[in-house]
Amino acid sequence: MKKDKFESASKIETANCADAQGKVAAASPKVYARGSKTKVAMWGVGVASFALVVGLVACAPPATTGKIEAAPSPNAAAKHATPEADEFGVVTAESWKDIYPNEYASYMDNASNSPDSGKKNYLETYPALNTMYKGYAFALGYDQAAGHLYTLESVKETPRTQQKEQLANCITCKTPQFTALVNSEGDGVYAEKFNDMIGQFDEPVSCYNCHENDPKSNTVASKFFFDSLGADADSIPKDAQVCGQCHNEYYFNGQTKVPANPYSGREQMTPDAILAYYDSMGFADWKYPGTDTPMIKVQHPEFETNYGGGGSYMTNLGYTCADCHMGKATAEDGTVYVNHKWTSPLENEDLLANDCSKCHSDLKAEVAEIQAHQEERVQAISKKIEQLANTMTDQVAAGTLAGDKLAQCQKLHRNAQFYWDFVMVENGDGAHNSKLSDETLDKSEKAVDEALALLA
């Protein structure tokens, strides 16, 4: 398995945010106007919605589904004024610690998911990526992400920002202080130089990202994402939306460098519709060296995998990200609070025993089987895509691949890698929506096989 089991076993792109050279439209870029009061999102947790076994129809979500709120400790909330904000207008996590001691302590428990806790180098785990991402900054470095407490550290230290000049939009979702700066100064902040700005910030992802400065409510602070939900925003639980603000597929507008989503509403959140959206824009993240294939780099589409199209099985039952990755906890003094250590549900023994066990005799084994199946397919198809890229490059250099045949192979190369990447970078490893993951890998494999046959 390529994921650890701390934050939804997640590769949530704390260091692996979109390459800040961005998703740039090659033609007719769309400008997304936003007000100056936008706020960027909570990283949340990988959305857990296991599409696993027949019989789950009988399940009912817990009473807190879609309604998990920060339960103040006995000495909290009404008895205390909101702490003073920092220079950016952010009340830091530490400032809340005396008012919400249990939430703060569990938040700080995320320190265990550190960069030194055995993270994988994906360029080694998936050797084909060295070929597949050639010409793009992800080929410089692509490590398994550390937890939310390390978002700033990770984005500063990735080779993608150290070895290549990036824009400040790569700081999106790394610190609430950047969010607040955008709020006060406007979207022009996104187009500033990364290295000119990153040193200003010292607060990693924290309370403000999900709650702004009001821990008693959840806020979808990232307005470009909220707008992309359209009318569906009324039917999707806020617990899912606040996580989805950063756990989504996005690109950077070619002119403004502002983040945007390639869809409007749930029906357009499918891999097919997203690819069609990019195709309609004449959009590419980069041109593949040696073949000029216009490539797409998918980000981390947990939200789309769970809520796009018809939705995943568990989200259709009413379960949200927070139900599976946070949930309630009880302190030694009997206080019930929301656990802010983001973990895989497989690490939550209380959840497994008291909720999951109603439908699953051995959820860990079921998930392991799903993830092993996907891992095998992801590895196998990556080797085919690597073969395709190398074969195309060799034939173009030899002058035997050109014209209409080259254009056909470029389209198949683009499609195959897009569908593959959509599955590989999604943090559930198939467990969030195994049916969609398999169908998407089928489309990747069909495209790469067709291209290889053309080149034979």
UniProtKB/TrEMBL annotation:
Q: Where in the cell is it found?
A: Cell envelope
Group of enzyme by EC: oxidoreductase
Name this polypeptide is given:
nitrite reductase (cytochrome; ammonia-forming)
What catalytic activity does the UniProt entry give for this protein?
6 Fe(III)-[cytochrome c] + NH4(+) + 2 H2O = 6 Fe(II)-[cytochrome c] + nitrite + 8 H(+)
Where do the TM regions start and end?
Answer: 40-58
Q: What is its EC number?
A: 1.7.2.2
- N-terminal signal peptide: none
Family classification = Belongs to the cytochrome c-552 family.
The alphabetized list of GO BP terms reads:
anaerobic electron transport chain
One GO MF term:
metal ion binding
The record's annotation in Gene3D superfamilies points to: Butyryl-CoA Dehydrogenase, subunit A, domain 3 (1.20.140.10), Flavocytochrome C3, Chain A (1.10.1130.10)
Keywords, alphabetical: Calcium, Heme, Iron, Membrane, Metal-binding, Oxidoreductase, Signal, Transmembrane, Transmembrane helix
Q: What is its main location?
A: other
- Which Pfam families does the UniProt entry name for this protein? Cytochrom_C552 (PF02335)
Per the record, GO CC terms?
Answer: outer membrane-bounded periplasmic space
